[in-house]
Amino acid sequence: MNKYSNLENLALFNEAVDETGARERAASIASRSIKKESKVEAIKMAVSMIDLTTLEGKDSEGKISAMCRKAMKPMDESEEIPHVAAVCVYPNLIKTAKSVLTGSGVKVASVATSFPSGQSPLMLKVEEVKRVVSLGADEVDMVISRGEFLEGNFKFTFNEVKEIKRACGEAHLKVILETGELETYDNVRKASIIAMLAGADFIKTSTGKVQPAATLPVTLVMLEAIRDFYNETGKMVGMKPAGGIRTTKDAISYLCLVKETLGDAWLTPDLFRIGASTLLNDLLMQFKKQETGVYQSADYFTND
Protein backbone atom coordinates (compact mmCIF):
# COMPACT_ATOMS: atom_id res chain seq x y z
CA MET A 1 0.00 0.00 0.00
CA ASN A 2 1.22 3.51 -0.85
CA LYS A 3 2.32 5.22 2.37
CA TYR A 4 0.49 8.37 1.27
CA SER A 5 -2.86 6.66 0.65
CA ASN A 6 -4.31 7.47 4.09
CA LEU A 7 -4.59 11.25 3.81
CA GLU A 8 -6.07 11.86 7.24
CA ASN A 9 -2.95 10.47 8.93
CA LEU A 10 -0.45 12.57 6.96
CA ALA A 11 1.29 15.42 8.77
CA LEU A 12 1.88 16.91 5.31
CA PHE A 13 -1.89 17.00 4.77
CA ASN A 14 -2.98 18.15 8.22
CA GLU A 15 -0.57 21.01 8.90
CA ALA A 16 -2.51 24.19 9.70
CA VAL A 17 -1.90 27.46 7.87
CA ASP A 18 -1.00 30.68 9.68
CA GLU A 19 -3.43 32.94 7.81
CA THR A 20 -2.25 36.18 9.41
CA GLY A 21 1.37 35.31 8.69
CA ALA A 22 0.55 34.48 5.05
CA ARG A 23 -1.20 37.81 4.52
CA GLU A 24 1.59 39.79 6.20
CA ARG A 25 4.35 38.11 4.21
CA ALA A 26 2.48 38.53 0.93
CA ALA A 27 1.88 42.22 1.69
CA SER A 28 5.56 42.72 2.51
CA ILE A 29 6.66 41.22 -0.80
CA ALA A 30 4.08 43.22 -2.77
CA SER A 31 5.43 46.48 -1.34
CA ARG A 32 8.98 46.00 -2.61
CA SER A 33 10.59 47.87 -5.49
CA ILE A 34 13.33 46.63 -7.79
CA LYS A 35 16.04 48.32 -9.86
CA LYS A 36 15.51 49.18 -13.53
CA GLU A 37 17.86 46.45 -14.82
CA SER A 38 16.17 43.81 -12.68
CA LYS A 39 12.75 45.06 -13.75
CA VAL A 40 13.54 44.60 -17.44
CA GLU A 41 14.69 41.03 -16.83
CA ALA A 42 11.63 40.36 -14.67
CA ILE A 43 9.35 41.64 -17.43
CA LYS A 44 10.93 39.32 -19.99
CA MET A 45 10.74 36.40 -17.56
CA ALA A 46 7.07 37.10 -16.83
CA VAL A 47 6.23 37.18 -20.55
CA SER A 48 7.88 33.77 -20.99
CA MET A 49 5.67 32.35 -18.23
CA ILE A 50 2.27 33.56 -19.46
CA ASP A 51 -0.51 31.19 -20.44
CA LEU A 52 -2.22 33.65 -22.80
CA THR A 53 -5.87 32.84 -22.27
CA THR A 54 -9.26 33.42 -23.81
CA LEU A 55 -12.25 31.49 -22.50
CA GLU A 56 -15.27 33.36 -23.80
CA GLY A 57 -18.41 32.24 -25.55
CA LYS A 58 -17.60 34.56 -28.47
CA ASP A 59 -14.17 33.01 -29.12
CA SER A 60 -13.68 32.21 -32.81
CA GLU A 61 -11.03 30.77 -35.11
CA GLY A 62 -10.04 34.27 -36.19
CA LYS A 63 -9.62 35.48 -32.62
CA ILE A 64 -7.58 32.43 -31.65
CA SER A 65 -5.35 32.73 -34.72
CA ALA A 66 -4.60 36.37 -33.89
CA MET A 67 -3.90 35.52 -30.26
CA CYS A 68 -1.54 32.73 -31.29
CA ARG A 69 0.41 35.05 -33.57
CA LYS A 70 0.79 37.47 -30.68
CA ALA A 71 1.83 34.60 -28.37
CA MET A 72 4.66 33.71 -30.75
CA LYS A 73 5.83 37.30 -31.28
CA PRO A 74 4.47 39.61 -28.56
CA MET A 75 6.43 42.65 -29.81
CA ASP A 76 7.28 42.78 -33.50
CA GLU A 77 10.05 45.35 -33.21
CA SER A 78 11.93 43.65 -30.36
CA GLU A 79 13.84 40.39 -30.41
CA GLU A 80 14.38 40.68 -26.65
CA ILE A 81 10.82 39.77 -25.78
CA PRO A 82 10.35 35.97 -25.76
CA HIS A 83 7.30 34.03 -26.82
CA VAL A 84 4.78 33.17 -24.11
CA ALA A 85 4.66 29.71 -22.55
CA ALA A 86 1.27 28.61 -23.83
CA VAL A 87 -2.13 29.63 -25.09
CA CYS A 88 -5.19 28.35 -23.24
CA VAL A 89 -8.42 27.83 -25.19
CA TYR A 90 -11.65 25.88 -25.20
CA PRO A 91 -11.48 22.33 -26.68
CA ASN A 92 -13.18 23.21 -29.97
CA LEU A 93 -10.38 25.67 -30.78
CA ILE A 94 -7.39 23.42 -30.07
CA LYS A 95 -6.88 22.50 -33.72
CA THR A 96 -6.89 26.15 -34.76
CA ALA A 97 -4.27 26.98 -32.15
CA LYS A 98 -2.12 23.98 -33.08
CA SER A 99 -2.16 24.88 -36.76
CA VAL A 100 -0.82 28.38 -36.06
CA LEU A 101 1.67 27.43 -33.34
CA THR A 102 3.34 24.41 -34.96
CA GLY A 103 7.09 24.57 -34.41
CA SER A 104 6.95 27.79 -32.37
CA GLY A 105 7.66 26.34 -28.92
CA VAL A 106 4.37 27.74 -27.59
CA LYS A 107 2.26 25.03 -25.98
CA VAL A 108 -1.47 24.59 -26.43
CA ALA A 109 -3.47 24.18 -23.22
CA SER A 110 -7.16 23.40 -23.04
CA VAL A 111 -9.63 23.52 -20.18
CA ALA A 112 -11.61 20.37 -19.55
CA THR A 113 -13.65 18.43 -16.94
CA SER A 114 -16.81 20.53 -17.27
CA PHE A 115 -14.95 23.83 -16.85
CA PRO A 116 -15.57 26.02 -14.88
CA SER A 117 -18.10 24.32 -12.57
CA GLY A 118 -16.74 20.77 -12.61
CA GLN A 119 -20.35 19.61 -12.26
CA SER A 120 -20.47 16.49 -14.38
CA PRO A 121 -19.85 12.78 -13.71
CA LEU A 122 -16.27 11.58 -13.62
CA MET A 123 -16.84 9.31 -16.61
CA LEU A 124 -17.77 12.31 -18.78
CA LYS A 125 -14.80 14.29 -17.46
CA VAL A 126 -12.42 11.49 -18.39
CA GLU A 127 -13.89 11.28 -21.89
CA GLU A 128 -13.55 15.03 -22.35
CA VAL A 129 -9.89 14.89 -21.31
CA LYS A 130 -9.19 12.06 -23.73
CA ARG A 131 -10.84 14.11 -26.46
CA VAL A 132 -8.80 17.28 -25.87
CA VAL A 133 -5.59 15.23 -25.80
CA SER A 134 -6.56 13.53 -29.08
CA LEU A 135 -7.17 16.98 -30.58
CA GLY A 136 -3.57 17.92 -29.77
CA ALA A 137 -3.59 19.64 -26.38
CA ASP A 138 -0.14 19.63 -24.78
CA GLU A 139 -1.59 20.59 -21.41
CA VAL A 140 -4.95 20.07 -19.71
CA ASP A 141 -6.39 22.45 -17.11
CA MET A 142 -8.95 20.52 -15.03
CA VAL A 143 -11.21 21.69 -12.20
CA ILE A 144 -11.79 19.68 -9.05
CA SER A 145 -15.28 19.00 -7.70
CA ARG A 146 -15.36 21.62 -4.97
CA GLY A 147 -18.67 20.38 -3.55
CA GLU A 148 -17.23 16.93 -2.88
CA PHE A 149 -14.09 18.43 -1.36
CA LEU A 150 -16.04 20.75 0.96
CA GLU A 151 -18.14 17.79 2.08
CA GLY A 152 -14.90 16.25 3.32
CA ASN A 153 -14.84 13.58 0.62
CA PHE A 154 -11.08 13.89 0.12
CA LYS A 155 -10.74 10.40 -1.30
CA PHE A 156 -13.14 11.37 -4.10
CA THR A 157 -10.96 14.38 -4.95
CA PHE A 158 -7.82 12.26 -4.91
CA ASN A 159 -9.34 9.59 -7.17
CA GLU A 160 -10.80 12.22 -9.52
CA VAL A 161 -7.41 13.85 -10.11
CA LYS A 162 -5.72 10.46 -10.41
CA GLU A 163 -8.18 9.31 -13.10
CA ILE A 164 -7.85 12.56 -15.03
CA LYS A 165 -4.06 12.34 -14.85
CA ARG A 166 -4.22 8.84 -16.31
CA ALA A 167 -6.46 10.09 -19.12
CA CYS A 168 -3.94 12.85 -19.95
CA GLY A 169 -1.33 10.38 -21.14
CA GLU A 170 1.73 12.44 -22.13
CA ALA A 171 -0.06 15.77 -21.72
CA HIS A 172 0.71 17.78 -18.58
CA LEU A 173 -2.08 18.21 -16.03
CA LYS A 174 -2.82 21.49 -14.26
CA VAL A 175 -5.31 21.05 -11.41
CA ILE A 176 -7.51 24.10 -10.73
CA LEU A 177 -8.55 24.30 -7.07
CA GLU A 178 -10.88 27.32 -7.50
CA THR A 179 -9.54 28.77 -4.25
CA GLY A 180 -12.26 31.44 -4.10
CA GLU A 181 -14.73 28.66 -3.28
CA LEU A 182 -12.60 26.69 -0.81
CA GLU A 183 -13.44 28.99 2.13
CA THR A 184 -10.23 28.66 4.21
CA TYR A 185 -6.48 28.63 3.73
CA ASP A 186 -6.38 25.23 5.45
CA ASN A 187 -8.66 23.91 2.70
CA VAL A 188 -6.42 25.44 0.03
CA ARG A 189 -3.43 23.61 1.50
CA LYS A 190 -5.34 20.32 1.78
CA ALA A 191 -6.58 20.53 -1.82
CA SER A 192 -3.04 21.35 -2.99
CA ILE A 193 -1.57 18.31 -1.24
CA ILE A 194 -4.31 16.01 -2.56
CA ALA A 195 -3.78 17.21 -6.14
CA MET A 196 -0.02 16.71 -5.93
CA LEU A 197 -0.31 13.26 -4.35
CA ALA A 198 -2.71 12.27 -7.14
CA GLY A 199 -0.21 13.24 -9.86
CA ALA A 200 -0.75 16.91 -10.75
CA ASP A 201 2.06 18.46 -12.80
CA PHE A 202 0.85 21.94 -11.77
CA ILE A 203 -1.58 23.26 -9.20
CA LYS A 204 -3.57 26.33 -10.21
CA THR A 205 -5.55 28.84 -8.17
CA SER A 206 -8.58 29.65 -10.24
CA THR A 207 -10.72 29.41 -13.34
CA GLY A 208 -10.89 33.20 -13.53
CA LYS A 209 -14.68 32.90 -13.38
CA VAL A 210 -14.99 33.17 -9.57
CA GLN A 211 -13.93 36.01 -7.28
CA PRO A 212 -11.62 36.22 -5.49
CA ALA A 213 -9.34 34.53 -8.02
CA ALA A 214 -5.54 34.57 -7.63
CA THR A 215 -4.23 36.45 -4.59
CA LEU A 216 -0.71 36.63 -3.22
CA PRO A 217 -1.60 35.09 0.19
CA VAL A 218 -3.42 32.13 -1.39
CA THR A 219 -0.56 31.64 -3.84
CA LEU A 220 1.89 31.68 -0.92
CA VAL A 221 -0.10 28.92 0.80
CA MET A 222 0.06 26.83 -2.37
CA LEU A 223 3.77 27.51 -2.88
CA GLU A 224 4.51 26.41 0.68
CA ALA A 225 2.51 23.24 0.04
CA ILE A 226 4.65 22.65 -3.08
CA ARG A 227 7.81 23.21 -1.02
CA ASP A 228 6.71 20.81 1.70
CA PHE A 229 5.63 18.22 -0.88
CA TYR A 230 9.01 18.48 -2.58
CA ASN A 231 10.85 18.09 0.74
CA GLU A 232 8.76 14.99 1.49
CA THR A 233 8.77 13.31 -1.94
CA GLY A 234 11.51 14.90 -4.06
CA LYS A 235 8.96 15.70 -6.79
CA MET A 236 8.89 19.23 -8.24
CA VAL A 237 5.34 20.41 -8.99
CA GLY A 238 4.54 23.62 -10.86
CA MET A 239 2.38 26.56 -9.79
CA LYS A 240 -0.08 28.66 -11.81
CA PRO A 241 -1.89 31.65 -10.32
CA ALA A 242 -4.68 32.77 -12.64
CA GLY A 243 -7.39 35.40 -12.65
CA GLY A 244 -7.01 39.08 -11.83
CA ILE A 245 -3.26 39.40 -12.55
CA ARG A 246 -3.27 42.45 -14.81
CA THR A 247 -0.25 44.64 -14.10
CA THR A 248 3.51 44.35 -14.30
CA LYS A 249 3.71 45.15 -10.60
CA ASP A 250 1.39 42.21 -9.87
CA ALA A 251 3.46 39.85 -12.01
CA ILE A 252 6.75 40.87 -10.41
CA SER A 253 5.26 40.39 -6.94
CA TYR A 254 4.38 36.81 -7.88
CA LEU A 255 7.89 36.20 -9.23
CA CYS A 256 9.38 37.49 -5.96
CA LEU A 257 7.04 35.22 -4.00
CA VAL A 258 8.17 32.18 -5.99
CA LYS A 259 11.85 33.04 -5.64
CA GLU A 260 11.66 33.52 -1.89
CA THR A 261 9.50 30.45 -1.23
CA LEU A 262 10.86 27.89 -3.70
CA GLY A 263 14.06 29.39 -5.10
CA ASP A 264 15.42 29.99 -8.57
CA ALA A 265 14.78 26.41 -9.69
CA TRP A 266 11.06 27.22 -9.98
CA LEU A 267 11.59 30.42 -11.98
CA THR A 268 11.07 28.69 -15.32
CA PRO A 269 8.00 28.19 -17.55
CA ASP A 270 8.33 24.47 -16.82
CA LEU A 271 7.38 25.13 -13.19
CA PHE A 272 5.69 28.52 -13.01
CA ARG A 273 2.94 30.00 -15.19
CA ILE A 274 0.68 33.01 -14.98
CA GLY A 275 -2.80 32.61 -16.40
CA ALA A 276 -3.75 35.94 -17.96
CA SER A 277 -5.56 37.67 -20.79
CA THR A 278 -4.64 41.35 -20.31
CA LEU A 279 -1.32 41.17 -18.45
CA LEU A 280 0.81 40.80 -21.59
CA ASN A 281 0.01 44.29 -22.90
CA ASP A 282 0.93 45.91 -19.59
CA LEU A 283 4.24 44.05 -19.55
CA LEU A 284 4.95 45.26 -23.10
CA MET A 285 4.04 48.84 -22.16
CA GLN A 286 6.35 48.72 -19.16
CA PHE A 287 9.15 47.24 -21.27
CA LYS A 288 8.86 50.13 -23.75
CA LYS A 289 8.82 52.57 -20.83
CA GLN A 290 12.08 51.12 -19.49
CA GLU A 291 13.57 51.18 -23.00
CA THR A 292 12.49 54.65 -24.13
CA GLY A 293 11.60 56.53 -20.94
CA VAL A 294 8.04 57.21 -22.11
CA TYR A 295 4.81 55.23 -22.04
CA GLN A 296 3.28 54.01 -25.25
CA SER A 297 -0.47 54.39 -25.67
CA ALA A 298 -2.43 51.25 -24.89
CA ASP A 299 -3.68 51.51 -28.49
CA TYR A 300 -0.11 50.75 -29.63
CA PHE A 301 -0.59 47.09 -28.69
CA THR A 302 -3.13 44.66 -30.08
CA ASN A 303 -5.87 43.33 -27.82
CA ASP A 304 -5.68 39.81 -29.25
Explained architecture:
- With 304 residues, this protein is an alpha/beta fold.
- Strands 7-6-5-4-3-2-1-8 form an eight-stranded parallel β-sheet.
- It has helices at 11-14, 19-30, 36-48, 61-72, 94-101, 122-134, 146-150, 154-168, 185-197, 216-233, 248-262, 279-292; strands spanning 50-53, 86-89, 107-111, 139-143, 172-176, 202-204, 238-240, 274-276.
- Helix 5 links the parallel strand 2 (86-89) and strand 3 (107-111).
- The radius of gyration is 19 Å and the shape is globular.
- It has one domain: TIM Barrel (Alpha-Beta Barrel), CATH 3.20.20.
Q: Do you know the CATH topology?
A: TIM Barrel
CATH homologous superfamily identity: Aldolase class I
Number of strands: 8
The value of Rg in angstroms is 19 Å
**Proportion of residues in β-strands:** 5-15%
- The top level CATH class name: Alpha Beta
Low-confidence stretches: none
| Helix and strand pattern | HHHEHEHEHEHHEHEHEHEH
The whole-number mean of residue pLDDT values reads 93
